[in-house]
Amino acid sequence: AQSVTQPDIHITVSEGASLELRCNYSYGATPYLFWYVQSPGQGLQLLLKYFSGDTLVQGIKGFEAEFKRSQSSFNLRKPSVHWSDAAEYFCAVDPFMIKAAGNKLTFGGGTRVLVKP
Amino acid sequence: DVKVTQSSRYLVKRTGEKVFLECVQDMDHENMFWYRQDPGLGLRLIYFSYDVKMKEKGDIPEGYSVSREKKERFSLILESASTNQTSMYLCASSLRGGTYFGPGTRLTVT
User: Fold this and answer.
1) Taking CB atoms and an 8 Å limit, are B98 and A45 in contact across chains?
2) Closest residue of B to A88, CA-based?
3) What is the pLDDT of residues B50-93, one digit of tens each?
4) Could you report the per-residue pLDDT of A30-73, keeping only the tens digit for each?
């Protein structure tokens, strides 16, 4: 079945340490890929996206993500975490990649990040 | 910047009431969506629209309807609210290039 998996439900990281969030997808072809962040009580903010080309994608807030076709993965990374990065992070895919499909997104279950001082 | 606004951040309604959730986007996007977000279930698509007066069911349309009379506005309607519709509702709009979300409406049905 087509799906998006975020294996880690919770991650705790110390402020200043590096962070990596995992995302795996299961689709026949490479979909469009996205990472979103949701701060408590807020909507979702787009961090970055991958459509094609360079497999290392830079986003906002110092985040980057690497697409690995062989592993069907799109992991999110940040070299040095700030306390304000505490939030929930969602990986999402657009499997259809055509306008007529309306850019429907399928989301992973989310990873909640806690930042220790 | 893309802006997607939702009419209410918090809403409390009684069982059986008709509820309207309004969403407006200011970027002339053709595609608009309504999702609901529940702990442990993630985000699930209720309805979407890819043009004015066009709508399609998402994964969980039961108990909901939508209206899109103008390009910038997409309304979600709960015809007769029930307690199992207590949730966070997120509106979004998109073009190729990304989907942008509103701040959400937390609806409680008592």
Assistant:
1) no
2) B42
3) 889 889 999 899 999 999 999 999 999 999 999 999 999 999 99
4) 788 999 999 987 889 999 999 888 999 999 999 999 999 999 99
Radius of gyration of chain B (CA): 13
Q: How does DSSP assign B12-80, residue by residue?
A: EE-TT--EEEEEEESS--SEEEEEEEETTTEEEEEEEESSTT--EE-S--TTEEEEEEETTEEEEEESS
Determine the Cα–Cα distance for residues B67 and B109; give it in Å rounded to an integer. Answer: 21
- pLDDT at residue B12 is higher than 90: yes
**Sign of the CA dihedral with A2 first, then B103, B101, and B91 last:** positive
Q: What is the pLDDT of residue A27?
A: 78
Distance CA A25, CA A94 (A): 11
Find, in chain B, the residue whose alpha carbon is nearest to that of A111.
Answer: B42
Which residues lie below 8 Å from residue B99, measured CB to CB, with a gap of 6+? Answer: A34, A46, A92, A94, A103, A105, B31, B33, B92, B93
d(CA A112, CA A116): 13
Q: Please give the share of chain B, as a percent, with pLDDT higher than 90.
A: 75
Largest CA distance in chain A: 47
**A103 neighbourhood in chain B, CB within 8 Å:** 31, 94-96, 99
In single-letter form, the type of residue at position B5 comes to T
Residues of A in contact with B4 (CB under 8 A): 43
* Separation CA A85–CA B8 (nearest Å): 26
